[in-house]
Structure formats: C-alpha cells, structure tokens
Amino acid sequence: MTQSLTIRRPDDWHLHLRDGAMLEGILPETTRHFARAIIMPNLVPPVVTGAHAAAYRERILKAMPKGAAFTPLMTLYLTEDTDPEDLAQAAASGLISAVKLYPAGATTNSASGVRNFDRVRGVLEKMAEIGLPLCVHGEVTTADVDIFDREAVFIDTVLDPIRRATPGLRVVMEHITTKNGVDYASAGGEDLAATITTHHLVINRNHILVGGIKPHYYCLPVAKREEHRLALRAAATSGEGRFFLGTDSAPHVDDLKEHACGCAGCFTATNTMSVLAEVFEQEGALDRLEAFASLNGPAFYRMAPNDETITLTKGDPVAYPAKIYTGAGPVTVFDPGYPLHWRVD
Ligand code: NCD
Ligand code: ZN
Asked: Domains of the chain, with CATH numbers?
C-alpha cells in the first residue's frame, strides 16, 4: 500500500545560508522544499543595519536556482549599537521579519552580540511597540556554567527578566534543546514561541560522544540527554501552535567540521522533510507534521500559510547525497543513523 501525505509547503523559521560560493552551493537544498525561511544574520561581518539586510537579500536572490519560488525573510543581528529607528524603518518597509539576539560568544560568529542587556533596552521596547519578533539564541556564555546547563540558566537569568521588563515583546526561543525550554515555552502567553530543529529530534549527546567523537553531530546549542530529546519530540509532535520548525541548518565545509577545533552546525536542509516525516510517523503523529512545518510558524509571524502543497510518499529507502559539493568545499549532509522512507515528490 502506498502511503502518502500532502501538506502545505513548509517554511524554515531558522536557517543559515552564508554567502558567496557556499550560499550558491547550498541554497537549492532549501528552495527545493521550502517556500520561505528566516535567514540568520551571523555573517562575517554580521548583518546589523537595514542596508546590510537589503544587500544580503539581493545576494540571496541572485544566487537562487532558476525557477525557484522562495522568499528569504531577513533579520538584523542585534548589537549594543543597533539603532531603533533604522530597525523600525526596516521592519515597516517589510525588509526584515525579525531581529536576532546572540549573547556575545554563544556560537559561530557571535562576537558582536550583546554583553550588557541594559544597552539594548531601547531597541527591545521599540520592537515590543511595533510587534517585531526577537529570535533568541538562548544560552549564557560564562565559563562557570556547564555547556549542558547553558540553556536552562539563560531562561532563568536572562530570558525571563527580559520578558518581564519588556511587556508585549514577541519572542521566539530558537532551537530549544531541553525540557526546560519546552516547559518555559509552554507556560508563556501568546507572545512566546519556540523553534525546534530537525536534528535535535533525532540525536542526544550520546550520538556525539559515544564510540568516537562525531563532529557532524556537533552543533550549538549542543544536543542534551535523552530525556530532553523526548521532551522535544513530544512538543514538536503535539500540534501546539507555539512550537514550529526552525532547522538551524548550518553548513560548514568538512575541513572545518573535521578539525581539532571543529565548527558547530548540522546541515539538514537536504533531507529535513524526510527525517521529519520519519520522526512524526515514529510518534504516531503524521497528521501533525503540517502544523509543525507549515502552519504554526506563519501563524506566529502573522503571515498566511503557503497556498502550494508538497506530497510525501512512503516507499523504499530514500537516496540522498552524503555531501553537497559547493564551490567553498564539501558539506556533509546530516545522517539520522537510520534509513528514511518518506520522499518529497
Ligand atoms: C550556527 C552556525 O554555524 O552559524 N551553528 C550551530 O551550531 N547552530 C550558529 C547557531 O545558530 O548557533
Ligand atoms: Zn542557527
């Protein structure tokens, strides 16, 4: 019996597209399935002004494969020098859809992020006023906090105080990796949502560290214990509006992943929809895949869901490339560790 599933075309609410030859090489992996994506601004140098975002958007559009129908939703990288008026103007013109908060030093290219949250108070108040979402990389960065605790400590010591001090601020907790993140997002009001990546539904920290170190499973926030992975799976497959897909697909060339100081990031753009279908089927929740991948995100971002649909069909294991060969070098595609049976037609 052929099993198939037709859903609205999905969107990716957290994506790294990079620039130059890497952008050109990996963009088709996203545009093949996704209609829109929130584009991360952590380039070198970062996308900090409306003018930077406009120029980056042009470079993305120029790199689009022929015939692709894809809309990049741009973001600004919040710094302590961000000008609330520039940001408000970029939002009003429709150029940007969100602002990204990286605590300084939290992850790849985050050195210009925020150190002193008092310095961005004016910007956050402006964002609350105009309803512009703040996408948050939720990890503290101080050396005294264990890397596996950084998300939970961030929620208590940074995120919750920011939200209390800025009523009406719309926040996306990005790539949550813990039960603490699920619980905090669940308890928040309508101004709070959380994205979940594809890979955090599949791997826990054992996948990274048992039987030899696996650099292609290393990302930030780092995968946690199994109990956290299970909490993420329950949240993603719950159908609840506050949880939606942000793949955090983050390409790095193999040389830099398989390195003495390897870069953080899993590249999942190529097979995300097949992996998600497998996960949702395992959880008996195929009927909720559309909510997670195609409906909840646009609802939070106050956009219409896509009119077009995609169809996934179950059959023999799906063949997908082990690597994408870009002009910048090869990028290894995320390997869930088991065969995938759902093909996007
Ligand atoms: C991202 C990257 O490589 O830009 N890496 C990652 O592990 N997710 C940065 C980020 O989103 O933290
Ligand atoms: Zn990311």
From this structure: 4-344 (3.20.20.140)
